[in-house]
Design a protein that fits this description.
This protein is α+β, with helices and mostly antiparallel strands and about 400 residues long. It folds into two domains: about 150 residues, no CATH class; about 180 residues. It contains eleven helices and ten strands. The strands form two sheets. It has a six-stranded mixed sheet. The protein has a four-stranded antiparallel sheet with strand order 4-3-7-10, with no helix packed on it. It starts with 6 loop residues before the first helix and ends with a helix. About 35% of the residues are buried.
Length: about 400
């Protein structure tokens, strides 16, 4: 009977573990990936505008009719099975206007790129006139409220003239009128030799620079969203922190994870090192399995040297973070890469710190109870290992 006063604490412990288990089971049904992202790049070539739009296969499937065949991974066979539908989709991706006049598409191409991305290329003749050209993404709202599309437009000299992060609520990008003016006539005295393209007017350059400012804030928010909806990254971090015994250990873990993934995020985004997502994603899932099993093996005790393991595995997670920026086409613009890279990474860190600030006080309080250390942490670790195994099989076998 002497243990009777502790019963409420024990039941509280069971309820806490049950809540975590329920949340874990819910996470099985959630995508352990980034928020939906796509990219479009517009280029002026010989007086015409070429739009190249890239989607992940999962996003393309969401835009295809319900009767279209589905596949967990796309290869040449899966691509060929839906090729006619992809050409129909390509014609309905964009509405391009010059002033109030709707412009027609002159040419459409669709191809499957390495890494399973699907590329839609449209060539549009803007015709005569000095009005600005307006690009409207027609199907963006069909991909959900969190989907974002990074759009940029280059002039014929390859200079950035317009950039914006589009969403279902704001799917329009306007190209400054000075950039889309009619081509300059041939220079007299040099028959058949077209003149060099004129440099964009100061107003066009100022508009492009001004559009870049809110984009950095949006990249920061993308970083926050990435870590908040990257359930595999969050689970890995939670598995590391749940066995921490001291505040110093917590700081060391978060610092090592931050430093490691920042290094590979920068290296991969700058294209110094490249690993295929088909390799990175299973390894990320495997790191979750390993940490969960190690926690089980240690029976809730903090393993020695966990900071070193965190740094090594954090390097792998950095490649996963980098995929989001590559999908946005940030690496295609080396001159403007540092701002988005820094803003995105800062957003990841802020989101990570915010989650740790919420979760760690709860874990810290529970760790004061011996039953949580001996029973609760192993139970959570077992669940973490199972979820990691589920994602590992999903990314390799299923």
């Amino acid at each position: 009977m002497a243990d009777f006063p502790r019963a409420p604490h024990y039941h509280f412990l069971l309820r806490s573990i049950g809540a975590w288990l329920a949340l874990g089971l819910l996470a099985v049904g959630l995508r352990a990936h980034d928020p939906g992202l796509s990219t479009v790049q517009g280029e002026w070539r010989g007086g015409s505008l070429t739009l190249t739009t890239g989607f992940a296969p999962a996003d393309v499937e969401a835009l295809l009719p319900p009767e279209a065949p589905r596949a967990p991974q796309w290869g040449p066979a899966e691509f060929e099975a839906v090729r006619p539908l992809l050409f129909q989709l390509a014609a309905r991706l964009w509405e391009v206007r010059r002033g109030a006049r709707l412009l027609e598409q002159a040419e459409v191409q669709v191809e499957l790129l390495p890494g399973d991305n699907v590329s839609f290329q449209l060539r549009i003749d803007p015709g005569e006139g000095g009005e600005p050209v307006t690009l409207r993404s027609l199907r963006l709202a069909d991909l959900g409220s969190v989907h974002r599309q990074f759009a940029l437009v280059l002039d014929e000299a390859g200079r950035l003239v317009a950039r914006k992060l589009l969403s279902g609520r704001d799917p329009v990008l306007e190209v400054p009128r000075a950039v889309v003016a009619a081509p300059v006539p041939e220079t007299p005295g040099a028959p058949g030799a077209p003149s060099a393209p004129a440099a964009p007017a100061p107003a066009a350059t100022a508009a492009a620079e001004e559009s870049a400012l809110p984009t950095l804030a949006e990249f920061l928010w993308l970083g926050v969203q990435h870590i908040w909806t990257g359930y595999d990254h969050l689970l890995f971090l939670f598995a590391l922190l749940v066995v921490c015994r001291t505040f110093r250990s917590i700081v060391a873990i978060i610092t090592c994870f931050t430093l490691a993934h920042s290094l590979t995020l920068a290296a991969a985004t700058l294209d110094w090192v490249r690993l295929a997502p088909s390799l990175v994603e299973p390894i990320i899932a495997a790191t979750i399995v390993y940490v969960g099993v190690e926690n089980l093996w240690r029976r809730g005790a903090e393993p020695p040297g966990r900071w070193l393991l965190t740094f090594g595995f954090g390097l792998i997670h950095g490649f996963g973070f980098a995929s989001i920026l590559r999908d946005l086409g940030v690496g295609a613009d080396p001159g403007g890469i540092l701002g988005p890279l820094f803003a995105f990474n800062l957003g990841v860190e802020l989101g990570q710190v915010a989650i740790a600030a919420v979760v760690m006080p709860l874990v810290w309080r529970l760790r004061q109870r011996p039953a949580f250390v001996t029973r609760g942490v192993p139970a959570l670790s077992g669940l973490i290992a199972l979820l990691g195994l589920y994602w590992l099989l999903e990314r390799t076998v299923f």
